[in-house]
Fold these 3 entries.
Entry 1:
Amino acid sequence: MQDVLVIGAGVSGLSCGIRLLEAGYRVRIWARDLPQQTTSGVAAAVWYPYKAYPEDLVVGWSRVTYTELMALRHDPATGILVRTGLEIFPWPVDEPWWGAAVPGYRRIAAHELPAGYVDGYVFDAPVVEMPIYLRYLQQRFEQLGGAIEVRTLSSLAEAVTTSPLVVNCSGLGARELAPDASVFPIRGQVVRVAQVGLSNFVLDDYGPRGIAYIIPRNDDCILGGTAEDGAEELAPDAHTAEAIQARCQALEARLGTAAVLEHKVGLRPGRPTVRVEQQSCANGQAIVHNYGHGGAGITLSWGCADEVVRLVRGVG
Ligand SMILES: Cc1cc2nc3c(=O)[nH]c(=O)nc-3n(C[C@H](O)[C@H](O)[C@H](O)COP(=O)(O)OP(=O)(O)OC[C@H]3O[C@@H](n4cnc5c(N)ncnc54)[C@H](O)[C@@H]3O)c2cc1C
């Protein structure tokens, strides 16, 4: 049985760790942050391929993950719900580029559109309560025999000297670790509010006042959002939070009475393209990279993990 060292304990590292263990490898994870403290822990998180490229690869990874999350929702320990969602636009749109990944999506009907919007899509998608899901993934990883160690690396060379096979799932950390100058943060701020009887999610990336999304979960709703390229401030901004609430209330009046529970900020790992790729090192050692998932790390997680296993198998 061959050893694999995975760097990172977000959704990418845990999903890869699980798939590698299931494929018969011995797996350890080294991570600076444990799962609940990662960007993955901040995600909204609805299945939707947002700010991740190239589209032709992303649609395939997204389709695999859609199917897997839909199957996992039957286990209440995963924290996965299925919600019907509306994606709305203030102008006419073509068929969605991601349509092949979602069985049964349809065009929105005129009576379903809020005032000021002219087109959109309606589809069912998994909504993932990340604190619950990450706990589930971590337990599944550990029950399969995996181990997580808190450890901060300054380069991947440190990892390669310990293990001949390294899987790099370090998210934004790949900017320094790989090192990869094309990786950049896309700051996202969200407001968690109490449930007020909402069931449908709403995605509005092009509204007149800016990005707005409403993700209803069992006991609360996540309101978003922002997507600021290059911004790294992790403290929530009060004005930004008020603006998010106002944009979401304009789409859903019932949110006007929703109590605010929490403010959160995360730095999405942006990159011109998701990097799932093998890099050969000296002495037959290898690194398989899996990072740069932008605003879609959960949406791509199982598809990319399967690809990582294929690449690892190819190494040895
Ligand atoms: C506000 C917001 C909303 C979002 N909503 C969605 C959504 O609805 N759907 C969706 O699919 N995605 C969403 N995302 C995007 C998603 O959160 C990310 O794409 C995903 O979390 C990336 O996961 P990852 O495991 O690759 O990276 P991370 O979760 O960032 O994990 C990286 C891991 O690498 C470790 N690491 C980094 N550097 C080092 C180092 N030097 N040494 C050791 N370890 C290191 C970290 O400690 C961590 O354990 C959202 C993000 C934000 C911020």
Entry 2:
Amino acid sequence: MRVGIGHDTHRLGAGGPLRLGGGDIPHDRHLLGHSDGDVLLHAVIDALLGAAALGDVGQMFPDTDPANRGRDSGEMLQAARDAVAAVGWRIVNIDCIVHAQRPRLLPHRQTMRLRIADLLGVDPERVSLKGKTAEGIGPIGQEQAMAAECAALLAPREEDDSTTPIH
Ligand SMILES: [Zn+2]
């Protein structure tokens, strides 16, 4: 088995919606970035690539490449999933934390879990998602930024593993 960790931080700007976990959440701020700024999916990508020792999201999708401007992070996550599968690993589970002062993530948690599970081609019970505020202090508490962390566990892929759809 292989374990990986991912971490990401993005600044927040005025105006919504908030792109997080592969979808849009109604909010009065949005994440800034060269891609769509989806801090949660970027942390998941880095955890998967890290577990397989395949580098990181910046290496796979350089921000110097104009093709990556505004790129859909869901598509980036699928590319990372495929890269990990191509070197013989399958995803056992991921566990994520989103650090955000606002909005409350609990009402959106299940939707995000289902979307991430769908993007990864795994059962939703293999995707855990937790939200934390920063108690109003620091750049996250002051709503200047959001951060996310993810841990991922990989196991060797079996040729006839019917529990893990191969895309
Ligand atoms: Zn990022």
Entry 3:
Amino acid sequence: MSDVQKALSRYSAVLSGDERPLFRHCKDLDHKLEQAKEIFENCALCERRCGVDRNIEAGHCGVREPRVVSEFLHFGEEPELVPSHTIFFAGCTLECVFCQNWDISTRPDSGRHYSPVEMAKLIDGQSGKAKNINWVGGDPTPNLPFVLEVIGHLEEDIAQVWNSNMYLSEEAMGLLDGVVDVYLTDLKFGNNECGERLAGVKGYWDIVRRDHILAKGQAEVIVRHLVMPGHVECCSEPILDWLAEEFGDTIRVNVMAQYRPEHHAFRYPEINKNLSIDEFRKAYKQAFELGLNLVD
Ligand code: SF4
């Protein structure tokens, strides 16, 4: 059996529940939680590295206590993940001007607070109905210590999906090592300039590439790439080339066509329109010809 077949076979086993999720083998969850709380007090959970004590004040993302906007069994994720118990946190570490979940990502005070024990009970209450727990938002990164604490209280043996923009710090990626079974990532921009202009962060392309490599060393990876109007050459092409070069067909790639102008997209002429069929075809053709392992 090739390495790729072994990886996919283990991945299917984890997702189908035939294999115990990794976090049950994570002996140092308590230690990770201690480390996470230290980082929380001088916040460097994402690469904005605000350095604030989140017990006292919010950083750039505006998130203080974790707030959950909605949680439900999701049947619209990639086929291998559904049904997925999806937990949507308020707040985000990026500021994408075209955000399609802006009502969640830009309102870190929305939703309601759960204690870790309450959240663990809520998850265990859905026992047997979902293949995995899917931590998302906004973005789950500002609430990483909370997620570790919830996992520590879970009765149910269930796979953990980290559904994220991957702008995490290296320290935060280390905390997830051995805890996350599947990284479900959004890879948006193929260079730092588009990341700064459209998501308000520095070093986007350098950081997310590093974190994808770290993620692949820890768990299975499914990458989502939303093709955007006017960004095929500068973003889709370098992203798809890099994924092929770095990972070949060992990760799943979902090339997505559902871009629509939302939020502040009207201020940026090239993205203030729907994606054309020709632009999507161009990106998809490239992904296909590169031999990527595409989600249908
Ligand atoms: S998670 Fe929020 S507070 Fe922490 S470094 Fe990132 S933006 Fe700043």
